[in-house]
């Protein structure tokens, strides 16, 4: 299947409307009152208790997994259950986590408890975060079907353990890559290592390109790819390349692309560098 075949008969006006609807929904999800734009801090848990400046609890981690101790009058909500006093949350799976909710007067809050790169973390979120209120939206390239290309999925004999860096110094992520995608741009053939996607059979790609650090975010962009058919055929639509949370906040632990996913051509499609960012002057590094 060629790119010309993929785009044959494509209604460009409808394609543009579909893209606008998709990106509007993506922005609405991103700017949810307790979404990642509402994160107020990143805290690495150890055996030494820490108090959160903007959320309830005293937090540690150990053999019982993350543990929270709440003072009198403090409470958290976990899956509909009210938690008071001390609660061990149990060991977390890598890239797993849970969310506890709280209220501070009229302000809604949440605490993300997660495991990233072998470390337990907590990230409070508050609906009154100033960045959330001031978020100006994310600029994009004008969608153009020329960046919607045919691709062939080539599975590995066995999933390959792939270690990648992180937006946080010293942190490493490990994924099982099931295969790679091969496609053509400007008469050249390129490949991208793919990770499992969010829906069965779909794929996820992390990449940079020649626009990275110029018009697009320097560290990474992400792209969802539909499940290939029985011949391995699928479509890579770079118009739907999006920023990960680390493009917006220093309190993110996003993975970086695998070494082979740094394209030498400019992908002038998808989301550009955000207009605003949450900076943490003393953002903590991952513990050794």
UniProtKB/TrEMBL annotation:
Pfam families: DUF1684
SUPFAM superfamilies linked to this entry: Metallo-hydrolase/oxidoreductase (SSF56281)
Listed InterPro entries: DUF1684, RibonucZ/Hydroxyglut_hydro
Coiled coil: none
Signal peptide: none
Protein name: DUF1684 domain-containing protein
Gene3D superfamilies listed in its UniProt record: Ribonuclease Z/Hydroxyacylglutathione hydrolase-like
Domain of life: Bacteria
